[in-house]
Amino acid sequence: MSRVTKKASSVCTDSPLSMSEVCQKMTLMRQILTSCFGPNGRLKQVHNNVGGHVLTTSTSTSLLQAVSSSEPLLKLITASILNHLSRFSDCGLYTGILCFSLIDHVQKSGLRPSVAIKINKQLLEVCTSFLNQEDCGCKVNVDFNSCQSLVTLARSVISSKPACVLTEGEQQHISTLAVHAFLLTVPCGDTLSSPVRLGRTVTVSIEGQFVLDSTVFPGLLVNVPDMQLHPTDSERIRRGPGPFRLALFTVSLSGDLSEFGEGFLEVHCGAPDPEDLILDQLLKLGEQAVTDQVEVFMCQRVIHPVLQHYLRRHGLLVVERLGIALIQPIVQMTGAQAVALYQTPIPPEAYGQVKGCFVRTVGSRKMLHLLPPREPVPAVCTMVLCHRNDTMLNELKAACQRAEHVLRLTLRDPVGLLGGGCTETHMAAYVSNKGTTEAAEAALSLGVSQSHYLLGLNGFCSSLETVALALEHDGGTNLVDLTYAHHWPVPQGEGLQRGDEGEVPATCGCGLVERSSRPGLEWTPLNTRYPLRHAPLVVGKDTTPTPQLRVLDSFTAKLNALQVAVEMANLVLDIGYVIQDVN
After folding, report:
1. 3-state secondary structure at position 274
2. Which of 54, 82, 170, 429 has the fewest CB atoms found within 10 Å of its own CB?
3. Fold of 13-137+419-580
4. Any idea where the domains of the chain sit in the sequence?
5. Where is the signal peptide (predicted)?
6. CA-based end-to-end distance of the chain
7. CB of 371 within 8 A of CB of 219?
8. Is 91 left (phi over 0), alpha (psi -120 to 50) or beta?
9. pLDDT of residue 372
């Protein structure tokens, strides 16, 4: 087919970072991400200009998926952040803020991009080497013998989502539930002889209830409306404990001919009715289930009323319309195999088991509670989340899922990083001291002048401190102590002179350094050049055995976020041309 209009030539843009329009868009995106950062971040409402659904959020995943841009550089950065979040679930805003800040500092400093890229790569290696040291002052070992650090880790994720609108008591309650659900999915006993398989957490959302009504149940809660809960089912549920044999079907057992697809069906005169033949096949399936002593009969889709009546008459508990989301959790918990055909007999290995089942009332809903069997299978638990409205509930559900993912990452590497901006200020101080001391050697190895190296070093350290500064949204003052280089946020209206302890908070941002137990501390405003008497504070050596940390971040997620931010900033700085197809 010939084109209606002549194909236009592609548009080639030279040095895109030198264009004011591109810089304005990047500055705007940086401001949006910065304003959402931390527990006091501002919410964003995103909606189409012609109407439709309004999204209220402060999470990076929801925000970046909802906000679209025609600028290729922004698309590239957004895609890299979303890819990081798909793997680690945390530190998305951190990645974006640090990436944009690095680009901005290079543009303002006048450094050539090629020089800045070399310096950034070298300083990134310094940071990763520092964070991987055993005596790194930013790292905290996560002790699985105590839930304290796990709850702190979960609370740091949940409290950083202000759209959840939780009080401190509610944050603590939800964080404890998240850890409880996580521990239920971790297998216990000797797992060295076989690969470790983690369980699964299924989330049930209840709108209109108090947050403190949220809870966790071992096993699986299945929504069963009153119209589906037959009196014989109630009697069956009230009988003694199991285990009960379970059969699970993903194929529709409604008996409709439409299940076979579109087309014509020719029936000769005197031939049996096709629907009667299908019903006979379904009843044979029911007979086999009764013969094989199946006690729980479940289907993803619809079950024919006659088959339901037959099964219930023989004492089976019948549940239909499960939906596709519950199939995999049921398979994982019961060990059943989902049957996709009813024309053939059910294979014996397709049956699963549940320890017991009974009805629970959760809010205004009646739900069937399936208990996991005694056999060592991957555990499945259900987290019931309650909140006042749908928007808060969606944010809370997303936050709990991210917290669970972060906790799972901790199994692989049981280490956390100090939160509250302390890791960034401490690491910036370390890199600044090391870089300044070794500036001549580093500049020579990179093939740049020492003045350019120090300029790039200053921009890199300032970008790290910018992340800590982004935690403040109310006009307060950000300080750093001159001994441990921890971040000390001071609320608005409480001025501070250098060295004055009167208005400094009792603890630093992460809660590790206490002002009362560290006499002689001095402070200076953050993001200013200062002489630092750097004294690393190693958790466990220079602190009490169980420091009361307020904020703890995921080591794995933040380390990858740091690498993604620096590498993406270098990639954007290295782009000389952007070629766009405008057809």
Report:
1. helix
2. 54
3. GROEL; domain 1 (1.10.560)
4. 13-137+419-580, 220-378
5. none
6. 16
7. yes
8. left
9. 87
Which two three-digit tokens encode residue 555? 């080591």
- Please spell the DSSP secondary structure of 347-406, one letter per residue: PGGG-EEESEEEEEEETTEEEEEEEPPSS----EEEEEEEESSHHHHHHHHHHHHHHHHH
Nearest CA to 551 out of 181, 124, 90 is that of: 90
Cβ pair 534, 426 in contact under 8 A: no
* Residue 270, SS3 per DSSP: coil
Task: Determine which helix (DSSP H) or strand (DSSP E) holds 577, and give its type and residue range.
Answer: strand 577-580
Binning pLDDT at 50, 70 and 90, where does residue 50 land? confident
Q: pLDDT digit string (tens) for 328-350? A: 999 999 999 999 988 889 999 99
Backbone angles phi, psi at 168, to 5 degrees: -60, -40
The answer to whether the bond into 274 is cis (omega within 30° of 0) is: no
Average confidence (pLDDT) over 274-291: 89
User: Which of 455, 418, 457 has its CA nearest to residue 434?
Assistant: 457
**pLDDT tens digits, 389-431:** 999 999 999 999 999 999 999 998 999 999 999 999 999 999 9
CA distance 242 to 334: 13
d(CA 234, CA 251): 25
The Cα 272–Cα 545 span in angstroms is 79
Place of tokens 């001095």: 522
Dump pLDDT digits (tens) for 555-575: 999 999 999 999 999 999 999
Give phi and psi for 572, each to the nearest 5: -65, -40
Alpha helices in 413-512 (DSSP H): 422-437, 439-446, 450-469
Q: How many residues does the chain have?
A: 583
Residue 453 makes CB contacts below 8 A (sequence gap 6+) with 119, 435, 439, 442, 443, 446
Could you confirm whether domain 220-378 is CATH 3.30.230.10?
no
Q: Which of 255, 583, 203, 199 is nearest to 373 (CA)?
A: 199
d(CA 434, CA 3): 62
Letter for the amino acid at 337?
Q
